[in-house]
Amino acid sequence: MKEVSSKYPVICWFSGGVTSTVACNLALEKYGKDNCRVIFMDTKNEDEDTYRFLAECQDWYGVEIERITAVDGKNIESIQSVWVRHKSLNVANGAICSARLKRDLREKWQRRNKFSFQVFGFDIDEPV
Fold it and tell me: pLDDT band for position 92 (50/70/90)?
């Protein structure tokens, strides 16, 4: 079992999907609400149901789900502005908007903040 530093929180990345929802809940149960921060990377282009579900999970968890975004209204205005700037929807490593609006944002956040470790939700399907 990984030890939690009393000085730095566990970062629980919430995406609005089932795996991150469960992973965040398990981390909150295991490490305690006072030792965790739940964070949502908001593209400002999520389905309205994602925002509804986020609010429900906030109530369920009993903690605020913090929102961070790369959308600044100048350099990045939307998913579509990322597509236009890069002249691409998808590249070999995946969707360019996910890289700019989520991965780059998370990496920047990680460099500026201290934490014990991070919790992500992943799904591994067995071959059919």
Answer: low
